[in-house]
Design goal:
- Helix content is 43%, strand content 12%.
- With 520 residues, the protein is of the alpha+beta class.
- It contains 18 helices and 16 strands.
- It has a three-stranded antiparallel beta sheet with strand order 5-11-10, with no helix packed on it. A three-stranded parallel beta sheet has the order 8-12-9, with no helix packed on it.
- Among the domains are: 210 residues, set domain protein methyltransferase, domain 1, CATH 3.90.1410.10; 148 residues, Alpha-Beta Complex (set domain protein methyltransferase, domain 2).
């Protein structure tokens, strides 16, 4: 599901290119706090650097950031705010294309252009950043490069199994492992090219390109690069990447108002008429409102965490993917596969995004279609509206959805209460543990909301009026499901009964003799 790499894309300059904590000792906790302080210091941009960058861009590059002010936040980083009241649609930031770094700039770089050729855009931008960083103050982009910092707790830096274990149960757990390996595999591929042709790539000229520097640059680019839909390319946009990224709302839904003191802007995009990247306020906002840029890729918290190492706890459009398919043993498999492919779906590993407050109609339609066994009913399934095929069919797909949700929830080692207790100790935990706990909690809330939505749909069809009262027409199936659902709770119920017996709660229920017949 990742959009880390794309195929041939148009750049904005017009060219085509290939793209456990409670048991720690006090000394251990103090070391953790110091380590976390260092991590935060490496991740944040100093307000002085942001102001210096804004001045340089305004004077040398024609960037218009006059609507913004840069203040220091509680962590010593930058908090971007509006200088004055702004209407919806007002320009917050305008950056000419000449001030943005794209694959065109990578292709013109004397050191890394050939190495980047044929590789994904983000790899090329990472190579560009490596080369510019090593120049230090001599780089043409020095004021900008100084502000390009990665979060050292981002998953791309992880190599230890105990770190990946933080994501146990999360749908992105496997992606975190794969991306970490892929980054190092990509580096190995690049160094192999260098070693294979020393005449074109003199070893002394490429000593700067170490694995640690490459991974750091790639993590920075993954967190900072902006996807520009109109230009169909990624770009490193100065000042824009100083502004925090927030989750985008559900497609078709307006972002929250700025009543909470935060103005959501964007998503940023390339404006053809002015040949610049523009960020506009999405809602009306008052002066001193904190500026957040909406994610152009509409990623969920899992993807945001993989790319930035942070989670948006107020993500207005967070979602998880539900996977479904057609069983190959289905006697109508071939016919169903042809119909689905004709509508742009697949018969295997079809994913649908599920939001907290809504589920896609097409997910229900796909499931209904997958379970029908009468060829005549296949034509009764609508992918345009939420239309029930039959009570039995609806009951079956809802039970399947409920079972999938339970399986997803069972993958986690912790419950929501555990996550809340962990977050209470956030001042004693590394950033990666804090953010991983936030991610797990956000995912569980989405799964829980989906289960509640399924229960609401099940309620009207579970009970059907009969002469004997409210009776489920599929009571035999329901009894089986209830029996299966109750199995995980049996050990807990037995333990609770034991505790009640130990407290003497059952004494009044025990039969008492009438005297005599006892010992003594």
């Amino acid at each position: 599901m990742s959009r880390v790499a794309r195929g041939s894309q148009t750049t904005l300059k017009g060219a085509k290119r290939s793209p456990a904590t409670q048991n720690r000792s006090p000394s251990s906790r103090s070391r953790t706090i110091r380590a976390r302080a260092v991590a935060d210091a490496n991740a944040v941009v100093a307000v002085e650097d942001a102001r210096e960058l804004a001045a340089w861009l305004s004077y040398d590059k024609g960037v218009d950031a006059s609507a913004l002010a840069f203040k220091e936040d509680a962590k010593g980083g930058v908090r971007v705010i509006l200088k004055a009241d702004a209407e919806a649609g007002a320009t917050a930031l305008r950056v000419p294309q000449s001030a943005a770094v794209t694959s065109v700039d990578v292709g013109e770089h004397p050191i890394v252009s050939e190495l980047a050729s044929g590789r994904p855009e983000l790899i090329g931008l990472a190579l560009w950043l490596c080369a510019e960083r090593i120049k230090g103050g001599a780089s043409e982009w020095a004021p900008y490069v100084k502000t390009l910092r990665a979060n050292p707790d981002a998953p791309l830096f992880w190599t230890d199994a105990k770190d990946f274990a933080l994501l146990k149960g999360s749908p992105v757990a496997a992606d975190a492992i794969e991306r970490s390996k892929s980054a190092r595999t990509e580096y190995a591929s690049i160094t192999e090219v260098i070693k294979s042709d020393p005449s074109s790539y003199p070893p002394e000229a490429y000593e700067f390109l170490t694995e640690a520097r490459f991974v750091d640059a790639l993590a920075t680019v993954c967190a900072k690069a902006t996807w520009l839909p109109t230009a169909q390319c990624y770009a490193l946009v100065p000042l824009l990447d100083v502004i925090s990224i927030g989750g985008a709302p559900v497609p078709g839904v307006l972002p929250p108002s700025a009543s909470d003191g935060v103005v959501r802007c964007g998503p940023a995009d390339y404006d053809v008429d002015t040949a610049s990247v523009v960020l506009r306020c999405a809602t009306k906002a008052a002066a001193n409102s904190e500026v957040i840029q909406l994610d152009a890729l509409q990623r969920n918290n899992g993807e945001l965490f993989l790319n930035t190492g942070y989670v948006d706890q107020k993500h207005p459009g967070d979602y998880i993917y539900m996977k479904t398919d057609i069983q190959t043993s289905d006697r109508l498999f071939t016919a169903k596969k042809q119909v689905l492919e004709g509508m742009g779906f697949t018969a295997a590993d079809q994913y649908f995004p599920v939001y907290k407050d809504r589920m896609p109609t097409q997910l229900y339609s796909y499931l209904r279609f997958s379970r029908v066994q009468d060829p005549g009913e296949m034509m009764a399934v609508s992918f345009e509206e939420d239309k029930i095929v039959s009570v039995m069919n609806e009951y079956e797909i809802l039970q399947i959805l409920m079972g999938d949700c339970r399986e997803l929830m069972a993958e986690y080692d912790t419950n929501e209460e555990d996550e809340l207790n962990l977050l209470k100790l956030s001042d004693q935990m590394p950033v990666r543990e804090i953010e991983a706990a936030k991610l797990r909690m956000s995912e569980k809330k989405l799964i829980g909301a989906t289960m509640n939505a399924v229960r609401k749909r099940l309620a009207p069809i579970r009970g059907i009026p009969t002469k004997q009262g409210m009776e489920d027409p599929n009571q035999d199936l329901l009894d089986i499901f209830n029996a299966i659902e109750s199995i995980p709770n049996k050990p807990k119920e037995m333990f609770e009964d034991f505790k009640k017996w130990a407290r003497g709660d059952y004494e009044d229920e025990l039969p008492r003799g009438g005297g005599g017949g006892g010992c003594g």
